[in-house]
Design goal:
The chain folds into two domains: 35 residues; 212 residues, Orthogonal Bundle (MetI-like fold). Helices cover 78% and strands 0% of the residues. The chain contains 13 helices and no strands.
Length: 257
């Protein structure tokens, strides 16, 4: 009786997962269909027409995404390690501020960020957008939680006994034990930056400075499917490359022993 019950539950779970998978794939299939069967010709038409503005959007997206990604990932991992391992004054206050900032939606942060970037005269400038988009409180808080569990006090004390300073602890213990953490932060930070629309649309006004998500709106339906496919491909490739590390990081604390 119990075996039949478990078998029915397993079948129900599989059917549910397949149904959700199909539901997620429907928009992607529609996007491929709208882009047309000849993708090479469609991409060539998009990039060769309209004075090559789509190439400028692609370059802007790549520069903005990878610059902000580098700054945000490095700062998040280092900040999480420092807050978790080192004796930092006002640690609880900083963690509380990080948590509050993480809960504030980007719509509420857009205007203060615009005022800040305008004060340093970097509006309509990719460098100003990179500065405004490099903060990633979720990554910092996640790094803190990860290092608290991955580096227990006994291991840190052993490192101190071996003569490791603060930088030595991070280099010899923090980095080797946080490979899964790096993959998770890189993936989610890349996803947020690559698809970012609201903040770039506020800080950038010149169409030549636009990113690919802004280009979707500027095209007004002419080639938007091609741009959508172009935006999806890097995300899918990054997930396939970091899938195992992401899964290892998510389930690292699920089983003890």
């Amino acid at each position: 009786m119990r075996q039949n019950y478990e078998r029915r539950n397993a079948v129900l779970i599989k059917l549910t997962l397949w149904a959700l998978t199909i539901l997620v794939l429907v928009p992607f299939i529609w996007l491929l269909r709208e882009a047309g069967p000849n993708y090479v010709a469609s991409f060539r038409f998009l990039f060769m027409n309209q004075n090559g503005i789509a190439i400028a959007w692609l370059k802007n997206s790549l520069l903005f995404t990878f610059s902000s990604l580098t700054i945000s990932v490095l700062s998040c991992v280092v900040a999480g390690f420092v807050l978790a391992i080192l004796e930092v004054p006002f640690r609880k206050t900083m963690l509380f501020i990080t948590l509050i900032t993480m809960l504030i939606p980007i719509t509420a942060m857009a205007m203060p960020l615009y005022v800040l970037i305008d004060k340093i005269h970097l509006t309509d400038n990719l460098f100003g957008l990179i500065i405004a988009s490099s903060y990633y409180p979720f990554g910092a808080f996640l790094s803190y939680l990860y290092f608290v569990s991955a580096l227990p006090g006994d291991l840190v004390n052993m490192g101190r006994i071996d003569g490791l300073g603060d930088w030595g602890l991070f280099w010899h213990l923090g980095i080797p034990l946080s490979k899964a953490l790096w993959s998770i932060i890189i993936f989610f930070s890349f996803l947020s930056l690559w698809n970012s629309y609201q903040l770039p649309s506020i800080l950038l006004t010149d169409p030549m400075h636009a990113t690919l998500p802004m280009g979707l709106m500027l095209l007004y339906g002419n080639g938007t499917a091609i741009v959508g496919v172009l935006m999806l491909v890097p995300v899918i490739l990054l997930y396939l490359l970091s899938q195992r590390s992401i899964e290892r990081g998510i389930f690292s604390g699920a089983v003890k022993g």
